[in-house]
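User: Structure with L-homoserine, tokens only please.
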Amino acid sequence: MMRTRPLKVALLGCGVVGSEVARIMTTHADDLTARIGAPVELAGVAVRRPSKVREGIDPALVTTDATALLKRGDIDIAIEVIGGIEPARTLITTAFEHGISVVSANKALLAQDGAALHAAAEQHGLDLYYEAAVAGAIPLVRPMRESLAGDKINRVMGIVNGTTNFILDKMDSTGAGYQEALDEATALGYAEADPTADVEGYDAAAKAAILAGIAFHTRVRLDDVYREGMTEVSAADFASAKRMGCTIKLLAILERAADGESVTARVHPAMIPLTHPLASVREAYNAVFVEAEAAGRLMFYGPGAGGSPTASAVLGDLVAVCRNKLAEATGPGESAYTQLPVSPMGDVVTRYHISLDVADKPGVLAQVATTFAEHGVSIDTVRQQGRPDGVGNEASLVVVTHRAPDAALSGTVEALRKLDTVRGVASIMRVEGE
Ligand code: NDP
Ligand code: HSE
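Assistant:
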């Protein structure tokens, strides 16, 4: 039976994502009503700059006092698309204290304070949904929390940041410079308010922490995720990757240890073969592989950033939370019963591509090979060539290893740096997806 009293929504933030949420809520109002079983009304919009012109938004709804909006007594659901830690955290907590369920796109906050926010939602018998926080439009959080709840996820690997994928794709396919590509991604609304979060890997690490928690039913904090950004990736790295039949992507990789007793979570640039499906993920698209014991390998793919795609995920959550409200129920809360420890990066086993600048004289190759052997790192291939910058008596040595623990590789590199014949370590990149 259709309920006539509308469910009232407070929209906290009306920027790239919030403005699209408001637009879709307005233009699809009839469909949303039919799907939910009650009308859903945009009852207030909290922003920072009230005088800014906002197309399609009734100015009477706009306020700078988000707290008062939540406390006024008639709001059923709050959509938090402000971003950052504060005031978002206090506003979400205030919403729960006033009987308001929350939909959020805020991965930074969920990665930092997810456990406390889940506890607050549970304490008040309310929902906290956040599909948009990971991989934009791609349904991933709900499939992992619900559809795969009966399976055992062992590994998750993917591209979860649209901005950096956009930049790396442009650098690779058009030879664009880093800053030019970042400016374009920012203009398209993909980047965070501070794009350092994207390019230094913090945004992907926050998403990795959220996904690892869901995948392994444990708590993974942002600090548990090993993180390297992509600002050091150079045209020379792309050239080297090409020679190996690879490209470079910023990957998030979450793994359950073979003995099942611990997990690892990491974000870093990596070379992947051009034949790997992740190699063909272009522009701001995201793609995530999930390997589960019974299901096998699943791939989730779609737009990973941008106002309209992200609003799609927010609206999906809004419909789910509205349905729960009408059923006087809540969706699944946090599931962190396994309490698996997160192992350090040194325990991760993978392959490496190391580019060295060395003296071009007899015995150097043997010295380098011995250093690898002394640290238990087995070499797969070695390629030597004259330095591209034409420096005489010097060469570039590119070593690709077999699988080895990260700690062993770090020890090798430290020892290589101490050799007189090694002028510098130009780049170290992991090789994944083989
Ligand atoms: P924007 O910077 O475009 O929008 C932020 C909004 O919050 C603005 O409307 C701003 O007001 C408002 N705001 C800022 N401070 C306050 C405050 N103190 N009180 C009330 N309102 C405030 O961000 P996005 O829309 O890009 O991102 C929003 C969230 O969505 C973030 O958590 C982000 O990580 C996440 N997200 C973003 C994606 C994207 O592609 N952009 C994709 C997936 C998730 P005003 O308009 O007046 O400045
Ligand atoms: N800045 C983020 C990205 C937005 O580029 O992926 C989507 O979460």
